[in-house]
Design brief:
Elements (H helix, E strand, L loop, with lengths): L4 E7 L5 H12 L4 E7 L8 H8 L22 E4 L2 H6 L8 E4 L11 H23 L1
Helix pairs in contact: 1-2, 1-4, 2-4
Length: about 140
């Protein structure tokens, strides 16, 4: 079996959307993809409600909020920006991988658990099939 492809989820704060995307991909597509996440201006923590939304699906995420510079030497097959400001600030050094933008609302702005679930579900609906298609 070949090594999984690498995907980076890039967001601004790296506390909610990119963390949920990383966890969902590693939990559900880990045989095909190895997911990472980072932020252009990391918050320094993973939002507890993002972790709770993942736990509802049986996913125990161990990620931490980090700056994209920490991944400067990684080579990614795909970089997916999950918020508009990260798409605008996406570093040029991210290499030859395909770049894709999918904007999801920031659930931390409302701090409502239902918003975290909605974003988690939207990421699962949009990102997992996208990566499955790219792996073919």
């Amino acid at each position: 079996m070949s090594n999984p492809r690498k995907v980076l989820f890039l967001c601004t704060g790296n506390s909610c959307r990119s963390q949920m995307a990383e966890a969902l991909v590693n939990a559900k597509l880990g045989h095909e993809w190895q997911a990472f996440s980072a932020g252009t201006k990391p918050a320094g923590y993973v939002h507890p409600k993002a972790l709770a939304a993942l736990a509802e699906l049986g996913i125990r995420h161990q990620g931490r909020s980090k700056h994209v510079d920490e991944l400067r030497h990684e080579i990614f097959d795909v970089v997916i920006t999950v918020c508009d400001s990260a798409a605008e600030e996406c570093p040029l050094w991210l290499g030859p991988g395909k770049r894709i933008h999918r904007s999801f609302p920031d659930p931390a702005k409302s701090d409502n658990m239902e918003d975290f679930r909605n974003v988690r579900d939207a990421i699962e609906r949009e990102i997992l099939p996208l990566l499955k298609n790219l792996a073919q």
